Amino acid sequence: MTTNNWLDVLKEETAKQGMRAVAEKLGVSKATVSQVVNDKYKASTHVIQQRVEGVFMAFTVDCPILGDIAVNQCLEHQNRKFAATNHVRVALYRACRNGCPHSKICGSK
Fold this sequence. Notes:
This protein has 2 domains: about 5-55; about 60-95, no CATH class. Helices cover about 55% and strands about 5% of the residues. It contains 6 helices and 2 strands. The chain has helices spanning about 5-15, 20-25, 30-35, 45-55, 70-80, 85-95, and strands spanning about 60-65, 65-70. Strands 1-2 form a two-stranded antiparallel ribbon. Strand 1 (about 60-65) and strand 2 (about 65-70) form a beta hairpin.
């Protein structure tokens, strides 16, 4: 089955790999995957959608620092705490908070 619907892809991957494996790849809990798949998730599914699109559907964004990266990697960089461990990490932290069009951080635009 080939589909462009992220929820169908999530259900397909869960059937093939199991909820635990899919949850680990998405960086969420098994309970979250179960609730989304069974249409019982109460919160917004937007972040889950982006993770599915990045991990299983190869959706990408044009990062101003790294170039073409998977959507889920973009989300991971946005969620990192500041650490001046290297110049790229500092640049990513700043870009994610200062107008990057892909940023989901409140007040970044």
